[in-house]
Design brief:
Number of domains: 1
Strand order of the largest sheet: 1-2-3-4-5-8-9-10
Number of strands: 10
Oligomer: single chain
Structural class: mainly beta
Strand content: over 45%
Helix content: 10-25%
CATH class: Mainly Beta
Radius of gyration: 17 Å
Number of helices: 2
CATH architecture: Beta Barrel
Distance between the termini: 39 Å
Order of helices and strands: HHEEEEEEEEEE
Length: about 190
């Protein structure tokens, strides 16, 4: 099976640096901050479906997701680039021919946007819970996993967009075995 051996560590390192940097910078849009009543303000939800990248694996995953904005963000002086700290939550199903399990995650993400364009990139890292750890011959070692992801979103209209998502899930060597799983998926996002 093809794996990214240090993928989790790299994503977590960059996400930590970006989060620490964003926490100390002023919020780009003061009006948006004053309108936000809660620390985590949901602003989009959607559905995605995908399959494992490796040919030896036969996994599929279906998920509902939502993204919540925090008040921490940054925009350059010329308004050509913006970054914001978000949180993402997912609930779905992971399956292969031998088993089906629920999969749930919640964690931080950094959204990177060139403001004039209807496109943005999101890098995320989330603790993930599986309701089953064994799928036939594949044993994920434990139910607690960690998922790092990269997502590209294109908003066709201000309310509807298309999304491509790639992720790596493993138990971060907290248990043995640790086969890891790489999944890519496509989905639809609704902004509100």
């Amino acid at each position: 099976m093809y794996r990214f051996p240090s993928y989790h560590r790299r994503i977590l390192f960059y996400l930590t640096i970006l989060t620490a940097g964003l926490a100390g910078l002023p919020v780009a849009d003061v009006r948006a901050q004053s309108e936000q009543r809660f620390f985590l303000q949901p602003y989009e939800f959607g559905f995605r479906a995908g399959s494992s990248i490796s040919r030896g694996d036969d996994f599929t995953q279906f998920e509902l997701f939502t993204t919540m904005a925090t008040p921490w963000g940054w925009m350059d002086e010329k308004r050509r680039f913006a970054a914001r700290l978000d949180f993402q939550a997912t609930a779905g199903v992971l399956r292969n021919p031998d088993n089906t399990a629920g999969i749930f995650s919640f964690g931080p993400a950094v959204r990177l946007t060139p403001p004039p364009y209807p496109f943005y990139l999101t890098l995320g890292f989330a603790p993930t819970y599986l309701t089953q750890r064994r799928f036939g011959d594949v044993d994920f070692g434990q139910r607690l996993q960690f998922t790092s992801s990269a997502t590209a979103t294109w908003m066709i209209t201000p309310e509807v967009g298309l999304r491509y998502h790639i992720q790596h899930m493993s138990n971060a060597r907290m248990a043995s075995p640790n086969p890891g799983l790489n999944i890519h998926s496509a989905g639809v996002v609704i902004a509100f």
